[in-house]
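User: Please predict structures.

Assistant: First:
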Amino acid sequence: MKKYIVLVFISLFGFAQQTPAAKQSKSILILGAKAHLGNGSIIENSLVSLVNGKIASIGDATVMKPAKHDVIIDAAGKHLYPGFIAPNSTLGLVEIDAVRASDDESEIGEFNPHVRSIIAYNAESKLVETTRPNGVLLAQITPRGGRISGTSSIVQLDAWNWEDALVKENEGLHLNWPRSYSRAGWWAEPGGIESNKNYEPQIKEIQTYFDNAFAYLASKNDKKDLPFEAMIGLQSGDKTLYVSANGEKEIIDAVLFKKKNNIQKMVIIGGYYAFKVAQLLKENNVSVLLKRIHDLPLLEDEDVNLPYKNAKILVDAGVLVGLQNAGDMERMQTRNLPFYAGTCAAWGLTKEQAVQLISGNTAKILGIDNNYGTLEAGKSATLFLSDGDALEMKSNIISLALIDGRQISLESHHTELNERYKGKFEQQKK
């Protein structure tokens, strides 16, 4: 009897976890969808050929003649999008906040460039499953904490383990820039804000660490220093420096730091007041992954709609902009990324510009635009079909999602509960 109970227990848990899709073996032709390419353009009546995990061809169905395919999907009336990308995410690093053993988002210490978030990534996280039914198919797995948190890696969200999920490994280093001001606490009124007396010493500490690291890398060393070794690539452009900063002064100082240290690629994360120094960012080729759009202003006397308008202001200034979701309940809210973009469209951007914020733009910022982010021939067949506008909560109903040409499951704990209680209420009606 005991054996029987154990078997049932295992079976139930096995059923709850989705099995990653098999490699694409049949050619697929998607006909008639309105294709949002992720680069600002659309094809009203598209023809898309998918072969061996790649987009073999894409164009206007009224002009192109389709070749023979194994599977033909009639997508008339539907919308086709590239897979959306969630940058600066802790998805898969924490499962239950209150269970310490499931929390792997940060390490002890201030300077941890050698910490690799990817090895802690849980590809079987229940939270990963909740993002895919809204079109979020890739993510940048990012560590938290300390002054230098560690390195991030990019994954696709249908995998057996972290090795299987990898798209780009150790692609960026994450630096938390000091604040130039401080508060007594969350209850502090604006009058309680004062300048951070330790701001300059903290910047000096960062500069000293980078000086020591670059001096180490420029010399021959018999003994390897793993933290310093992790700084390789910042001056060559092989690795991106992601700097978390929201204030105007902090962003200016971060850009000056970039120039002083010959860092080739820098991205500002947060960037709430980046619009005040947009020209500086554009001139120095610094991109911005904006602070969560669905949030309150930082100061009580600001325009209450500033978080919604921020993307429009920066895009108009010529800055490369993407959206990220760090903050309270960030892993659970990753699935809302398309609707953040929809809010940006409601406050000034065109719908196609808003789509770029979570597809083509983000792919460029993360350095994966050679294969992801837009619907183009030769790129990965990572895309999805929606019954309506994917940036609108009511109409984003996904009927098909592919990662590298593999048709993935759109089931999750949410859909399971929906079916269970829908059946309950239907029985009550009888």
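Second:
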Amino acid sequence: MNLFSTDTTPRQRRQALRAALNAPGIARMPGAFSPLVARSIQEAGFEGVYVSGAVIAADLALPDIGLTTLTEVAARSRQIARVTDLPTLVDADTGFGEPMSAARTISELEDAGVAGCHLEDQVNPKRCGHLDGKEVVATSTMVQRISAAVGARRDSEFVICARTDAAGVEGIDAAIERARAYAGAGADLIFTEALHTPEDFERFRTAVPDVPLLANMTEFGKTRLLSAGQLQDIGYNAVIYPVTTLRIAMGSVESALGDIAETGTQTGWVDRMQHRSRLYELLRYSEYNVFDQKLFTYTNPRKD
């Protein structure tokens, strides 16, 4: 087992993502806000890892309004992809600019070792997909983004997903037409943001039958939360839970800090913490010790 990277190559992970998108079951991809969370996602038995742009922004204490940079997203994505054999799908916002910027984004994320990314059709800078006031670019502009991304791709297995936010701006029929155009431009996967009901998902699946579809099950948004099984029955190929782990973590952090501030001790939270021994398991602490002892044994030169 490689302690400093994954046991699989980026191309193998990209092939795994494509296989998952074409498998009978649905690919479940929880969001990871850190490499350690990504390792937990793998150990829990999921099919992939998702890196949310909103989560990267939130972790930097920034709103999701296009303030993060390609450098920041690529760096965090590289850190996460490094520690898991699961394929990692990354939120690349609008491609961080116009079509040429989208092309560079693909190159940077390929170099980061991720399995794929999605580009969206919002205006640049974008805003959270579940907030009102979004604006989308013309279909032709998004087609240019996708075409530039596809043209920049060096590994044909790298998955390029097109996200459309048009359902909440122009209606579902417009989003369907956009999805067809984006697939025609070379998108491997379609992500329709902020659908509301199971019927919306069914309508989209029926209207766009020949390309894999991704569903976003984010909390506190416009979409009714559906189970992976329900989405699979509808015919969706992948589902992301983009902010779930961050919200769980921050909910516990805020509650615990409030208690500590009031009581002066963390003892009431010890049983709810991840134990040190479990953390060391995730970190593969003992394996690092074995590796180190095989290579280098420290002796105190003053000990005689």
